[in-house]
Here is the input.
Amino acid sequence: MQPVQLARRDPPVSLVHRGQLVAILENGDYVARVQLAKANLAEREAALFQQILMPGYRHRTPETRQKLVETIAELTRLTDELKRHLLNRAVADVFEDVV
Here is the structure.
């Protein structure tokens, strides 16, 4: 599988903005909301993986199981990459006058 190519944006962030970001992230309410959102996202991703991989899971041969492990690792890598790109793009769109 080829990695998904999205528009790359690595906006510069000044030291002042980084300090403000750290202050926001240290807020306990924000951290709790982010953790809950990430937990919900992980559950949805697991459900998607289950739909994709369940037919292979039913075959209990060692070869099929090894292919399943490799596919899970690849799907995990791809979804991590996609999330990183989507977050960068969304932040740049929201804060286009800042970053």
Q: What stands out?
A: The longest helix spans residues 62-94. The CA atoms of residues 33 and 39 lie 10 Å apart. The chain has a mean pLDDT of 78.
